């Protein structure tokens, strides 16, 4: 999601006449797009901003912006920590970024923007970084409140883009450049259209567009990985047989404590259905270790489910304490 946000921010900067540089020390503007999902990511962002503080002393006209989930969570408090920053905005500020930057350029004072909820974005110029892949965000925010996760507090409630906006954005893609359209959402398979369309309907609609050579999507929540989605993937030749389905723990006790809204047996049933309909699927997952209350047996359950689900790869992360969770 953050990569896609950065692509849009870069695209807007280009339309305002800025050019990318590989050496931030030579830049006129540095925008730090932050992630708050883990403490390590926050520490890294603050470390880099510390470097920028020194650079601002050497170059007082340097514009420094911080955006994304850290400022959304910290709000005005961040101005005390980072008084040298010129622009502070949460994720929903992207929609207003061009105007906010104009204000910074003319007023020479710190500008802030914190919307409480994500807003469905329009179609913006995007400097896509993963050619031949084009990320297309189809929804923002999250309603699930997993007990370890800060996302609902910083990205707001789930909001879905209408089918028309998704299609219109895909139609802007040059087919000779982009080979893969990658639909994105915190819970991409929970997407619902403004006319009651389900995610499987969207997959089928997008699949028919002539711009599409390959179609992928991420990240899916197991509780919403319904049979119609499995069928859509199995029966649509342009949809990649790649499914990322984070389980987070192999222990039903820990899954309940995580508020994941499914248990181990449910997850394995979904996996069985996927393998039966899409035998050549590449199935990947995420697992958190060290969640509060996790015993050796719970950990063994996670190891066991890795074998049972026959994942192609698993991102394993140590539990990270997040404020408000
Ligand atoms: S589904 Fe859970 S882990 Fe994923 S973004 Fe929402 S709250 Fe976080």
Structural summary, described in words:
The chain is built from twelve helices and twelve strands. By secondary structure, the chain is of the alpha/beta class. It folds into two domains: 2-113, Methylthiotransferase, N-terminal domain (Rossmann fold); 133-318, tm_1862 like domain (pyruvate-formate lyase- activating enzyme, Alpha-Beta Horseshoe). The strands form four sheets. Strands 1-2-3-4 form a four-stranded parallel sheet, sandwiched between helices. It has a three-stranded parallel sheet with strand order 5-8-9, with helices on one face. Strands 10-11-12 form a three-stranded parallel sheet, covered by helices on one side. Helix 9 runs parallel beside helix 11. The two termini are 21 Å apart. 36% of the residues are buried. The model has no long low-confidence stretch (mean pLDDT 93). The structure holds iron/sulfur cluster. Residues 142, 144-146, 149, 151-152, 186-187, 221 line the site of iron/sulfur cluster.
Output the keywords.
325 residues; alpha/beta; Rossmann fold; pyruvate-formate lyase- activating enzyme; 2 domains; four-stranded parallel beta sheet; 12 helices; binds iron/sulfur cluster
What class, by secondary structure content? alpha/beta
Oligomer: single chain
Q: Count of helices? A: 12
Hetero ligands = iron/sulfur cluster
Q: What is the number of E strands?
A: 12
The CATH superfamily title of the largest domain: tm_1862 like domain
- Computed over alpha carbons, the radius of gyration is 21 Å
SSE order in H/E notation? HEHEHHEHEEEHEHEHEHEHHEHE
GO cellular component, one term: cytosol
Function: Catalyzes the methylthiolation of N6-(dimethylallyl)adenosine (i(6)A), leading to the formation of 2-methylthio-N6-(dimethylallyl)adenosine (ms(2)i(6)A) at position 37 in tRNAs that read codons beginning with uridine.
Cofactor: [4Fe-4S] cluster
Catalytic activity: N(6)-dimethylallyladenosine(37) in tRNA + (sulfur carrier)-SH + AH2 + 2 S-adenosyl-L-methionine = 2-methylsulfanyl-N(6)-dimethylallyladenosine(37) in tRNA + (sulfur carrier)-H + 5'-deoxyadenosine + L-methionine + A + S-adenosyl-L-homocysteine + 2 H(+)
